[in-house]
Amino acid sequence: MQKGKRGTVIRGSGSYIPERRVLNADFMQHSFYGPDGLKLPKENMEIIAQFSKITGIRERRYVTEDLVTSDIAGFAAQHALQSAGVDPESLDYIIVAHNFGDIKETNRRSEFVPTIASRVKHFLRIANPTTVAYDLPFGCAGWLQGVIQADYYIRSGDAKRVLVVGAETLSRICDPHDRDSMIYADGAGAIILETAEHNVPSGVLAHVTKSYSSELAYVLRMDRSINPDYKADHLFLKMNGRKLYEYALKTVPQMIRECLDKAGLSIDQVDKILIHQANEKMDDAILKGLYSLYGAASPPEGIMPMTIAWLGNSSVATLPTLYDLVCKGRIADHALQKGDNIIFVSVGAGVNMNALVYNVP
User: Fold this and answer.
1) What are 233-250's pLDDT values in tens digits?
2) What is the per-residue pLDDT across 330-346, written as a single tens digit (0 to 9) for each?
C-alpha cells in the first residue's frame, strides 16, 4: 500500500471555564472615565446598555482569588489529555500562549520566570526532558499561532504530538474605570495535535499569519489608569477599539480568503467558522465581509458559533474553548462531523492576525 502524506490532526481538546460569573449589572457602581481623564457624563445604566449592544456581552467569567494563569492552563491541559487518551510523557512540545504571565490577586505584577509552559509541565508531572515547553506571547492570536507552529513541527517530522494551550486572566489587568474593562474575561483552552497519514488531505490544510506593526503596534498597549486620581501605579490593558475594528474589517476577510485559496477551498465548502471572541459586532461584520468577497449577500445561518455573550473575551483562550465546547456538544445547534471544513480566525495585539483551515478527519 502506498504511504500517505504526513498531516496534523486534533486528537483531543479541553477547557477551563472559571466559576465566578460577573454580570453587566455588577459594573453599575463603577466610575467610568474617558481618554481625556474626565468622568463620563452618561449614567452607568446607559453606558452598560450601549456596551452590551455593541459587544454582545451579558456576562463574563473571572478566576477566583486563589488561581493564576498557569493553574487554569494546567486544568485545560489535563482535560485535553484525558479527552485524547494519551500519555503526557509522549508529548514532544508544550506551547502555552498567553500575554501577561501569572498575576496574583494580592500582587498585580506579571511573573514570567519560570515560563508558564514550564509551570504547566510541572503541574502535569511530566518527567520527560525531551518534552520541550515554551511560551508564546502573540496577542489574542497567540493560541492559533501555537497551533501553526505545532503543525510545522509535525509536518517536518520533528514532533509527533504537541499540546497547545491558551490561557489568560485578563481580570487582573482591567482598569476598573475604563469601559473596555467590561470586555475582558478569564479562561483557558487546549488541544492535543498529533501526526497522521492520509491519502487525501485532512487535518490542518492551510494557514496564514500577518503582523501589522508599522502603524498598529500600539493599538493595544499597557498604560496607567484612565482615572487621573487612581493612586496605585498598576499598568492596565488599553485599546483603541475603533481603530482595531476598522482595520480588522479591511484585512481579516481578505486574509481568510487567502487561507481558503491556499487550501484549495471555496466559501461554500466551509461548514463552521470559529472566530476569536473579541466583539460580537466586529465578528458579525468580518463574517459578512468575507462572504461579500464571494458575492454572497449574507452568510448562512448557524455557521459561526459564539460564546462571547456569556464568556466575554478571554484573549488566547476564546478559540480553544469555543472549539472544545462545540466538539462536546455544549453549544446548542452546533456540532462537528467527519469531513467538515472549519476555519479558525484570530486577531489581536501587535497587530497580529491569523487563519487556519482544518478538515475534520
Assistant:
1) 889 898 888 888 889 999
2) 999 999 999 999 999 99
The residues, any chain, with a CB within 8 Å of residue 107's CB and separated by 6 or more, are: none
Contact 59, 23 (CB under 8 A): yes
| Closest by Cα among 90, 304, 99 to 192 | 90
> CB under 8 Å to 350, separation ≥6 — which residues?
138, 139, 141, 211, 212, 213, 216, 217, 220
Q: Name the CA dihedral angle for 160, 150, 320, 294, rounded to a multiple of 10 degrees.
A: -120
Residue listed under C-alpha cell 462572504 = 291
Neighbours of 332 (CB within 10 A): 7
pLDDT for residue 63 is more than 50? yes
User: Where do we find the cell 462545540?
Assistant: 326
Judge contact between 359 and 340, C-beta under 8 A: yes
Is the pLDDT at 166 greater than 90? The verdict is: yes
Cite the beta strand spans of the chain per DSSP E.
5-16, 20-23, 59-62, 93-97, 102-104, 107-111, 132-136, 161-169, 186-198, 203-211, 220-223, 236-239, 272-275, 341-348, 352-359
For the whole prediction, is pTM greater than 0.85?
A: yes
pLDDT tops 90 at residue 360: yes
Q: Which helix (H) or strand (E) holds 76?
A: helix 69-84
